[in-house]
Amino acid sequence: MIEKMDHWSNYWSAGYLTSLPENFQVNYNGEVAAWWHAVFAELPANCNILDLCTGNGAIALLASKYSMDNHKGFSISAIDASKIDANSVLRRYPEQAKFLEGVEFIGDCPVENSGLDSAFFDLLSSQYGVEYCNWKPAAQEIYRLLKPGGRFAFISHVGSSEIQSIMEQEEREYDNLRGWGFYGTIKNFLDGQCGARETQRKLRKIDKRLLKIHKRHRGALLDNTSRVIQHLVTLDVINFCSNKEKLKFFYMQHIYAQRRTKDMLDVSRSIIDAPEWYRVFEEAGLVLVGQDKILQKGKFYAGVAYRFQKPA
Questions:
Q1: Angle, nearest 10°, between helix axes 182-190 and 162-179?
Q2: CA gap 16, 1 in Å, rounded
Q3: pLDDT at position 3
Q4: What is the pLDDT of residue 215?
Q5: With left for phi above 0 and alpha for psi between -120 and 50, is residue 149 left, alpha or beta?
Q6: Which residues contact 169 (CB under 8 A, 6 or more apart)?
Q7: Within its chain, how far is the Cα of 267 from the centroid?
Q8: In 18, 46, 187, 304, which residue has its Cα 20 to 30 A from 32's Cα atom?
């Protein structure tokens, strides 16, 4: 049985620091990082920071590096509703080791009900995270966690952006694969309901459909799937069956990725339906003190940045 957050736990277990590895090779950089550095620069020394929906701690690590570079002595915690494995980051990015040491991670910890101390944090941060929460209870919890005068800063996805366009293409490609019977074919083989030869025959038919789509209109998802199918159909029955565990892994990666794509599109569409959704934080008692459009490399619409403050 797939648990509610398994698709994100699976992703973070690969060690990625951002949910957009195609756009940010290691951690957030450029205009996104510069905006966060400006947020950190306004904080007093030895303050308490909590990064919400942290994933593998991208913003927490930016804060940790900033603190070390500027002798700020920040105390940094980071929570996420999925599981967090800092060792996965070390395996992929060993150069982050000293910055990871400056962060306390708490997994299986939803923002809406964190259980952390009230009025303890000087800054709550979030990058592509808080908009995935249940907005109203998350806003109430954020207000509770902040000290009087404390700040809440975040960068959110927007309803329409290059990120959404990429996700929409992936959604169409997943829908195509599903409609052509790709997932059902693999699942039936894994469940023992279809033999190897019949599975290979069905996969050949699916790949013919894939190849009819001009390469110019195929995304990385369909290209990769086609390559996997072409490899599988060349195997003899014994070798095909011996690759069952690898095929199961490939199948589950697709299932998890589909769910992550759906999450991201659901959020974007919710923001389109409620463009002033961020007002929920004002309703909880915070004051909006700044709002900025973030353009990565001067042209890539990376999101909207918000800064709130709890009245002193």
A1: 60
A2: 24
A3: 62
A4: 66
A5: left
A6: 219
A7: 12
A8: 46
What per-residue confidence (pLDDT) applies to 312? 93
Q: How far is CA 87 from the centre of its chain?
A: 18
pLDDT at residue 197, as a whole number: 96
Q: If you write DSSP's letter for every residue of the chain in order, what string do you get?
A: ---TTHHHHHHHTTT-SSS-TTT-SSS--HHHHHHHHHHHHTSPTT-EEEESS-TTTHHHHHHHHHHHHHT---EEEEE-SS---HHHHHHH-GGGHHHHTTEEEE-S--GGG--PPTT-EEEEEEES-GGGS-HHHHHHHHHHHEEEEEEEEEEE--SSSHHHHHHHHHHHHHHHHHHTTHHHHHHHHHTTSS-HHHHHHHHHHHHHHHHHS-GGG--HHHHHHHHHHHHHTTS-HHHHHHTHHHHHHHHHHHHHHHHHHHHHHHHHHHHHH-TTTTHHHHHTT-EEEEEEEEEETTTEEEEEEEEEE---
Interatomic CA distance for residues 112 and 134, integer angstroms: 7
Encode 208-247: b = buried (16+ Cβ within 10 Å), e = exposed. ebbeeeeeeebeebbeebbebbeebbeeeeeebeebeeeb
Which two tokens mark 285?
A: 């008692």
Sequence-separated (6 or more) residues with CB below 8 Å from residue 33: 27, 62
The pTM (predicted TM-score) of the whole model is 0.90
State the Cα–Cα distance between residues 145 and 66, nearest whole angstrom.
23
* CB 101 within 8 Å of CB 75: no
Cβ burial, residue 199 (10 Å; 0-12/13-18/19+) = buried
The vertex-66 CA angle with 14 and 310, nearest 5°, equals 95
